[in-house]
Amino acid sequence: MKWSCRAPLPSGRLCPRMDRFKCPLHGPIVPRNAVGQPTTQSASDPDAERLDPALDWQDPELLRDLEATMGLNMKVEKKRKGKRKHPGLTDIKETENTTGKRLGKKLFNRSAMKRVADELNRLEGRRKT
Question: Domain residue spans in the chain?
């Protein structure tokens, strides 16, 4: 049970979750004694200080070695979202997209107008006879 949380619960039992690095309820997994109290981290456990495996590849020594062998810059900068030039202004193209205009595109296109005219002519022909 090396990777179980074992944090004391209000019921008196220990947390049974078997997460490897971090319990979603109690935080990082730390070594605990039989009662559930955290024990001091010893210097013999090198993984105790490094709880997030996603940061292992960002180790400065490892990056320096990789840069030396490959000749590439291995640092990853966070991408920034670009600033909008005029954030307070409304988009003209967005205001042109209204309900009436969207319906007008369907109703007043050439084929729809032709169908309506044909139907009106057919109905008018019936009335005269």
Answer: 1-41, 93-128
